[in-house]
Amino acid sequence: MPRKAREKSESGIYHIIMRGINRQTIFEEEEDQAHFLQTLGKYKEKSQYKVYAYCLMGNHVHLLLKIGIEPLEQVMRRLCGSYVYWYNTKYQRVGNLFQDRFKSEPVQDEQYFQIVQRYIHQNPVKAGLVKEVGEYKWSSYNEYVDQAGLVDVELMLGMISEEREKAIRIFTEYTNEINEDVCLDIDNEKGRITDEEARLIIKTVCKVKNAIDLQKFDVTTRNEYLKKLKAEHLSIRQIERLTGINRGIVLKA
Fold first, then answer.
1. Which residues on neighbouring strands pair with residue 19, listed in sequence order?
2. Same domain as 228, residue 156
3. 200-237 per-residue burial string, b: 16 or more CB within 10 A, e: under 16
4. What is the number of other CB atoms lying within 10 angstroms of the CB of residue 152?
5. Are 20 and 59 in contact, with CB atoms under 8 Å apart?
6. CB-CB contact of 135 with 142 (8 Å)
C-alpha cells in the first residue's frame, strides 16, 4: 500500500516529530541534546527556516518550524543525516537512528500555532519528567521568557501583545495552563502501547529480567527509571500494573 502523501502547509509552518527507530533512545547524554541543537542552528542559517518551538525528549523530538528556501523533506534529511553521522561516530554504531519517515502536520492559523507551542512545551510535564514547564532544560520555553537564541520568539509574542513584558506574562500563563490539547503525537498512528510492548520497554530501559524487578532498586535509581518509562509514553496505570509499584510513587517520580 502506498504511503499517504504528506499534507502541505499553506503557511509553511509545520509541527514535526522525529522519533527513534523502534522507540530507541536518541539522546544518551546532555552532550547529545546540545549537539542536536547546534545542528538545528547550523542548518537554520543554511536552509533559512525559522524555529518557533522545540522539545528534545528521550526518544523523540518535537519541532515547530517554518520552511525557508528548501522543502521540508530536504531540511529534515539535513538535520537527521548530520546528527546520525555524529551520533554513530560517538557511540561506534552503524545504521539508522531515526524512524524512516518523520511525522508532520500543517499549522495554518494563529490559534492552532499557539496550541501547538503549548503542547510541545508541556511534553516533559505530561511525561512526568518535571513538575513545571520552565524546569525542563531541553525545550525552547525559556527562550521566550528569558533570552532568545535559536528560537524566533517574535511571531508568538506579537500575536499576544505589542507590549513585550505583557506578552511574556500572558505567554507564561497560557503555556502553563492545564489543558486537553490534542496535537500530532508520537503514538497517534499506532494507538496505545500494549502490555507486551510495555514489558519489553521496561526490561530494556531498566535492564531487568522481569518488570517487577524494578521494585528491587534503591529509591533514587528506581525513580530515575520510572521517569524514563514515562518518557517512553507508558501510562501511569500500565507502569503500576506491570511493575507492582504503587501509583502514587509512579506519579511523583
1. 60
2. no
3. ebbeebbebeebeebeeeeeeebbebbbbbbbbbbebe
4. 17
5. yes
6. no
Domain-embedded: residue 134: yes
This prediction has a pTM of 0.73
Whole-number Å distance between alpha carbons of 36 and 41: 9
Question: Which residues partner with 103 through β-bridges?
Answer: 17
| 184 found inside a domain | no
pLDDT tens for each residue of 188-232 = 444 567 777 888 899 989 999 889 899 999 999 999 999 999 888
**129, 210: one domain:** no
Distance CA(246)–CA(142), nearest Å, equals 33
DSSP state, 233? T
Q: Which three cell numbers stand for residue 28?
A: 544518551
Nearest CA to 51 out of 165, 148, 158, 184 is that of: 148
The reply to whether 106 and 219 lie within a common domain is no
Look up the domain containing 38 and give its range.
13-175
Q: Beta partners for 55?
A: 62, 139
Instruction: Give dist(CA 190, CA 187) in Å, integer.
Output: 6
Q: Are residues 124 and 219 in the same domain?
A: no
**Cell, residue 218:** 534503591
Total domains, the chain: 2
Report d(CA 165, CA 152) in Å as an integer.
17
Q: Is the dihedral of CA 170, 175, 176, 181 positive or negative?
A: positive
| Residue 6 belongs to a domain | no
Across 4-27, average pLDDT: 87
